[in-house]
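If you are new to this repository, start here. Below is one unmodified record pulled from the training split, so you can see the exact layout before writing a loader.
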Amino acid sequence: MALSKVDLANQVENQLPQNLVANNLPFRNIIINGDMSIAQRGTSSTGLTSGSTYTLDRFVTAPSNAGTWTTSQDTDVPTGQGFAKSVKLDCTTSNASLSANSFLTFSQRIEGQNLQYLKKGTSNAESLSLSFWVKSNKTGTYICDLYDSDNTRQISKSYTIDTADTWEKKTITFSGDTTGAFDNDNGLSLFCFFWLVAGTDYTSGTLNTSWNSATTANRVVGQVNLADSTSNYINFTGVQLEAGTTASDFEFLPTDVNLQRCQRYCYTYANYGAGNVSGNRGYSAQYAAGSIVHIFYPTTFRAIPTLTYGEGAGSANSDQSNISEAQLYDTDDIGFYIYDLLVEAEL
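And here is the target side for that same chain:
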């Protein structure tokens, strides 16, 4: 009988000397790009006031009535821990008087089929440990929560930033949920939220520290207001979510592996400042009008993406091609065609 990932980890742990890392199975980190090293869309997004914005791959910044924010890739990292990048959220317009529905979250969204080994909804449901490095000028209580989108269930935990402008490592343990299985498909099943701002709609109840049906007022009780000054910022790196009650060392993946995991959700052919799969460039020189080019993605997408097409960056004294007319068709989760190309090659 095949062993689950967690059962195999326990078996390995029982056979290891005490001075070795026990929970060292590959891909134990549910979070993708937790070291903040991949940024296909660009390294900075400014003027964020509403909506959901991807800057660094797989992580979403979502403000609402919470001032104005910049999200950027940063080189400020904890010393001697192996990290080269972090993410920084910087307040550029403050809001010291929050509306009841104000919020700012930094989060990742996770497919249900990647979570089946957690056995959620059964008596054997696995606990989850969330570990990360964090740095901010604003000390106090912050909230992380897990939100089960399939069953509208939720659990919150608090942590404290103790010392201003200092990297600190935090570990939070969430109990397993014996109610409500994750859907076994490529849809969104789990949010992992870092809350940074929350109005009274989210803070007026009692913090929900065990799995329950989601009640908005109980999600973010005690959260500080990171939006109350333009001096405020927060950095994260080394974000890891894994099965079990003990956090292991951060799982560093090779750059090519980390990139390909991100490319399941976003792939840019050339980065001239536009964003995600809705801003890709895909063009090729030396094709006459009426030609067809078949473009394959480097990995299978989670679902069929939406594509838009921009003109190339050809200019005088350049060997780049300026496609002035092209059409896309037969898009699926492995690639697409460009046809009816009109190419101007300038040398």
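Two things worth knowing about this chain: Helices lie at 5-15, 200-203, 255-263. Confidence is low (pLDDT under 50) at residues 12-22, 271-289, 311-325, 342-347.
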